[in-house]
Amino acid sequence: MTFQQTSDSTLPAPPAEARAPRTTDETGLPFLFLVELLSKVLFQRGQVRLPELASHLKLSISVITPLVTHLRSEKLCEVTRSGGSGTDADLTYHLTEAGMQRAVACLNRNSYAGPAPVTLANYVAQVEAQSVRHLHVTREDVQASFHDVVASPQVLDQMGAAMNSGRAIFIYGLAGSGKTYLAERLCGLLHGAVAVPYAIMIDGEVVPFYDPVQHRPLAGAAAPADEGGDLLRTLDARWVRGLQRPTALTGGELTLEMLDLRFDPNTRLYQAPPHLKANNGIFIIDDLGRQRCSPLELMNRWIVPMDRGVDYLSLHTGLVFQVPFDVVVVFSSNFLPERLSDGAFLRRLGYKIEVPPHPPAEYELLFRQACAQYGIAFDAAAFHYLLTGLHAKDETPLLACYPRDLIRQVRDLARYESTPPTLNQRALDWAWHNYFAGAGARRVAAEQQKKERERREQQSYPLNQGRSG
């Protein structure tokens, strides 16, 4: 895996690699905005020492000092000495009554009181510097990342090549075929650390951005400084560095409103949409077609971002602004692509990859893995009975989810009977009956056959239409 970046040394360093600002002007933020942010922090935290303010706001003391001086000159802040060292370390700062009233007014507009934000322009520049489109995925990368995954080599090759396209990927197949699992494993192909800001300032409004649930540290990532952290102290602390490329997963709960920037009138805080937090990574939309909005509405929402690499969001004040759309969008669905959208959208899907049922050899590997995972000895005769006496009889496809789910039932039965779990015909019959509810397996097979007929009809329709014309 290689991460290709320009070698032109004349280009400026990405914002996350820039020196920490030493003056308020170097922050790129308005002076009065910083004063209001400091007021909100003092209101929430009470008496605070200067080093504590610097640590909270992720700004140097040289930046905070003129802000405190301004508050004191306006009689909004007072200084109290607590301690006997006789140095400035004993000084604590707190708001006056007038300062508290001013802070409350600021909090009523936007209650954000965390680390100082970066500008939208700097965020855009950082996203471009670490763009996911700079990645180069090879077959060796796929083999290394999916070495423990039982999947069709053709499907893995399609996914690996699709990651180099920079376009959206549509993965489809039967329910339980392993589509979501394969889609989530694609994040293993996104090598390299990224940096994200704690928050972004847009037209005077602050949008919290860093999400510790989604933005996780990259295992083994080198620290910015190797010697005593000197370099780290000189870098802009408003950025969180050494993070793995994000992977966002959303399913049937997704609505169109979730894809917009939302402002909560109660908390007075913004919430960034999931695809914005997933910039420089992967955004997976699972179970496409089962959302509360129609697939056509959802896909129309993505046409412009997927086509142009930008998205448009709006503040609650009405201002519309542009943000990068630097994500690998992966759609996963049980439905055929043609059933979910029209040709205009389908043309924008770079790859349409079907995850088919497994052949018997791959299915056996999955079954052996499930046995090992749950501490049950694999039995070749019992597995042969599963294939010929159950799957073949009910014409049930060999899907990736079945081995794990059936073995779990075998384990549950053994626990109930207080006996060692054993793979045999009795246990498999019991698990099969519970899992498919008797005739359920035949119903599943009938549904799959119906979908296959629909597929053939849709594939033959354009040809027949052309002949009739």
Describe this structure in words.
There is one protein chain. The chain is α/β, with parallel strands linked by helices. The chain has helices at residues 31-45, 50-57, 61-73, 97-109, 120-129, 139-145, 153-163, 179-185, 230-234, 274-277, 295-308, 337-340, 343-346, 360-373, 380-394, 401-417, 425-436, 440-468, and strands spanning 2-3, 48-49, 77-81, 91-95, 118-119, 135-136, 168-173, 194-197, 199-202, 205-208, 239-243, 247-250, 262-264, 269-271, 281-285, 310-314, 320-324, 327-333, 349-355. The strands form seven sheets. It has a five-stranded parallel β-sheet. A three-stranded antiparallel β-sheet has the order 2-4-3. Strands 5-9-10 form a three-stranded mixed β-sheet. Helix 14 packs parallel to helix 16, helix 15 packs parallel to helix 17 and helix 16 (401-417) crosses helix 17 (425-436). Residues 1-9, 223-231 and 461-469 have low confidence and may be disordered.
How do the helices and strands line up, and which of them pair or pack?
Layout: E1 2-3, H1 31-45, E2 48-49, H2 50-57, H3 61-73, E3 77-81, E4 91-95, H4 97-109, E5 118-119, H5 120-129, E6 135-136, H6 139-145, H7 153-163, E7 168-173, H8 179-185, E8 194-197, E9 199-202, E10 205-208, H9 230-234, E11 239-243, E12 247-250, E13 262-264, E14 269-271, H10 274-277, E15 281-285, H11 295-308, E16 310-314, E17 320-324, E18 327-333, H12 337-340, H13 343-346, E19 349-355, H14 360-373, H15 380-394, H16 401-417, H17 425-436, H18 440-468
Parallel strand pairs: 5-9, 7-18, 7-19, 12-15, 15-18
Antiparallel strand pairs: 1-6, 2-4, 3-4, 8-11, 9-10, 13-14, 16-17
